[in-house]
Structure formats: C-alpha cells, structure tokens
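Work Package 3 (structural annotation) set out to generate three-dimensional models for the target panel prioritized at the project kickoff. During this period the team completed the workflow that converts sequence records into discrete structure tokens, so that structures can be stored uniformly alongside our sequence database. As a representative example, we reproduce one entry of 604 residues exactly as it appears in the project archive.
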Amino acid sequence: MREQCWAQQHQGLARARLNARLFLPFSFPSAAFLPLPGGRGEGCLKADEGAVMDNKDSEAEIHPLKTEEVKIQENHENSVERRILTKQSSQLSRLSRWRTAAFFISLFLCLIIVFAFSFIIPCPERPVSERTWFRNYDGAVAYQFLAIEDVNEDKVQDVVFAFRAGNGSSSFNTSCLDEGLPSPCAFVAAVSGTNGRALWERPAAEEVEWLECGIRQLGGAAAPGCLVVGKPPALTALDLRTGEVQWRQPSDFGANYSVLPPVAVIPDVDSDGVQDLIIFVATGDKIKTFIHSGKHGKQIGSAGSLEVGGKARCIRLNLGSSSYFLFYTENSLYAYSLKDLYSAATGMEMKLPSLEQDPQWEKNIDRPTHRLSLLSSGDIRYLAKIPRQSQEHILVVNSEVAMLINTQNLQTLWTLNSSRVISEPLLGYYKPDVLGIVLESEMGPNRKKVMIVESGSGAVQWDLQLSSGAGSPGPAVLPTADHRSAFLLWGEYQAPGNQTRSRAPLQKLYLFHPSYTNVLLELRNSTDQIIGFTAALFERSRHACYVLLRGPQPGQEPGLVSLMKRKVKEDISQSRVIWLNQVAVDSEQYVRDRLYRMRFQSRV
C-alpha cells in the first residue's frame, strides 16, 4: 500500500511540474499540485509529509549559506549590470552633446564665411567694355601691324600696334630721345580693349620692319613679349605687360633687307633654359638665316645662306616631331628641315627630339637644291596650313587652281579652279564643325569673287561677287555658338544688272552668317584709308569686336592716325539688310533681331 501511494505521488508531481513549465512563468511548490484532502492520495501525503520536511531541514543544515550566497550573487550581478548601463548611457549622452556642439560650430563657421564673402570681402569689379572707342594720334603714320593680346591681364583683349611720330601721345609724354633714337621714330603702343586707354608706349626703333607679339619666355620673363625688328638692323624685346625693354641687340642683316614673316620660335639650342628665335631675311636674291637667343638676343652661330630666291615667302609646317620651313617663289617650292637650318647657321649637328627629319619628306626633297616637287605647273600665290586630326595639310594656291596636299604621302586630295587669288586664305566654319576655306579671286577690274570651300572635299559651299578697289582689307571670321562662323567681308555689293563702273567702289563692311544664306548685313561705310583690320572676341565667348587702323602709311605725309574698336552687335542693330536672291523670307527687322541675338563662343 505504501509503494502504491508513493507511485501515485511521484506521478502527480511529475504532471504538475510539466504543466508549470508549459503554462506558467514561475513554479509553485510541489504540494500545490498534490490531491486535495479526501482524494485518493490523501493518506500517502499525510504519511510522508514528515519525511519531506525532514529532508528540507537536513538540506538546510548541510548548506546553511546557500540561499544567502545566491541572493548576494544575484544582487552583485544586478549592481554590475546597472553600473554598465549607467556608464554606457552617460557615454552616449556625452557623445550626443559633442555631436550637437560640432554641428552648431560648423554651422556658425559656414555662416561667418558666407557673411564675409557676401558683405565684407568685395567682389572683383568686372571691367565694363565700351561699345565703341577711338584713339587718335596727330602728325603720325601707321604700320600694318595689329596684335590682339591681353596686356593688363583683366581677361579682356587689348590692341598692340606701331606708329611713327616725333613724340608719343599726351598720356605718357614720351619722346624718341628717351631711348636714344632720332626723331621721328617708331613707337609700339598698347591700348586697353575696354575703353581705349593707353596702357603703355615705348620708342622701339627708327623704323619698324616687323613686329610680332605673344612670344613666350622672351627675355626669360614669365610674361609674353613683343619682338621688334627695326631699321637700321636691330632686335628689341619688349615686355608685353609693361612695355619695358628686355634686351636690345644690333644685327648684321645687311643692306636693303626685308624680313620674311613670321619670326619663328624654336627649341632651346644654346641650353640657357629659354627657347630661341630663328629669323629669315631676304637680301638681294638670297635668303639668310639668323638664330638668336631668346634670353638675351645674342646671335647663335653665323648666318646661313639658303639657295632660294630673294622674293620668297615662307610658312612653318609641323609634321609630328619634325618641323619644316617651306619657301615659295613664283615657280618653285623649297623645303628645309629645322635640323638643316640649325646646321647651316651653327656648323654643327644638334641631336634634339624636335630636330628630327621626316623620312617621307626627305625622299621627295632634292638634296642639292632643296626643291620639293608638289606642283605640275603654274606660279604659287599662297601657301596655307590646313589643320587635321593627326597633322597639318598644305593648301597650295597658284594662278589657276587651289590644291590640298596630304603631308603624309604628298598626294593631292582635291583641286579647285580659282584663278588669281588676291588675299591670304582664311579658315572658318560654314557647316557646324566642318572646316572651310575663304578664298577671294579677282574677276576683273575692281571685281572679286568670295568663295567658301569645304576643306575636306574642295566643294564650293557659298560664293558672292563684290566690287572691290585696290588696297581693300581682307576678310575676317568670328566663331559663333552654333559651331559655325560669322564672316566679315569688305567690298561693295551691287545687284545683278545694276553694276556701275563710272566710279571707284566704296569700302563697305558686310556680315554673312550661314543661318541666312541669302542675306548680307551692311554694317558700315568707310572712306578713309584702312591700314589694318581684324576681328576677335575681346572677352572669352562674348564681346565680338572688330578693329580698324586708319590713316597715312610710311612713305606718305604724316597725318591723323585713328585706331577704332567697334562692337559687332552695335552695327548689326543699325545694319541694312540686303537680300541676295531678291526673295524676302522674313522681315528685315526679324533678321536683324535674330542675328543680333546670335551668340559668339571661343573655340578651344
């Protein structure tokens, strides 16, 4: 009976413990799950109640501190956990305060910087370019040189030119005696492009044979310079920024010489850290070569003599790492590598990468005479370089045709009939990003034909006939934002059937843009003698202007020399619209307004 009671008791306890584990978060004493009094196991409970109590008492006697240790350990663990949580919360709180402080400090500094740039530090004043300005010089004659350079570094182009007079302008009160020159003498002057104010004037020579500006490292200076080739023979280097003389060196060019432009910059051959200069001078029926140091102007080596006729012109052609100078006369074309010219002037070989020779060209150059056989017949009027992706091509213009020559294999790419070209070929864009060539051909007495030719194929894209007198300026181009060009042409347009030959043609300036192929804009009339004309963007991608230099030339009686800059858009707004095909597509005011809104953009 006792064993049965114990079995029932153990089964009840097991079921109670299982139910507690499944359904309750805490455990009750085992007695709570025993059968109620009066039940089947009541006798067993009462019989063994004393034994259970004896077991508890004996366990307490054996481990009297177990309960207290558990409580102490639990309290200790809870205390450590509370300290860790408190420490972590304090660290997070401190980090949050630092973040907040850093944010407000950064915000405060940003506000100070914005305030300083907005109110305290003044913004640089942008120069305000006048639409038109004039600069007059009395009792002077002007040379045919116009250079467009940023002289005073205000990001606006300025004008550099040369005139001959007894004294300079009243702005500087300079005289020829200041530089030890007899009066009158040649002055080089720089004029501001914004308002025509004289930036500097410098007596440079008795006479100016050639003037070239924008030469870098001239005199070893960081700023570009201007080189003046004067008469009697002398070279003068001027600082472009200030007009100060960097160096002046006499030269032995000989008598009755003339300079073959341009003066070329060559690599440093005397190892002084500054690139040098090579100058070609025609004396009689010979051409001499002079190499001068760009740092101090002294001659390097001796003068070399070329087997070329004196009445020649030259261009420089870059063929990769090789550089050639082409001299052309009426019937012949000569080619000299820079290496040959250096050897002729110094009498020694110089091994520089830039003094290499092109094998293909050397095969086509006759070594004794240096002649280059590119032409079948006819005299050469002009040579021009046509840029390509890899290297430059050559445009050869003779009395009958114009030919484009591939410089890699010296083969003719195309031929165009263009008799008696009267001005230097000019490059522009009739189609977007398609390079074109402007040619002016003589059509008869006081008549010329202007053609725009595509450089890739030789096809004529546009042409126009104008009346033109002797000494009429050549054309000019201005780049526009639609990747084309605006073309400025001189002459007098007369509608077909209305040509009058009883008077000399007037000098009128026209503007043509390919967006209106049947429209000319007559910008202005000029009755004065025009010595120099050029057009340029005086500020990057804006402020398109043209410059006119008018007055007497050397050899004529001194008089009033006038330098004028005029904004193109001012003339467009007041221009006269000419319809070339007598069919008006839009109103004249609409055409003026559209071309007035035309934007100009500098090409990279």
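Helices lie at 2-23, 42-62, 66-120, 338-346, 359-364, 568-573, 588-596.
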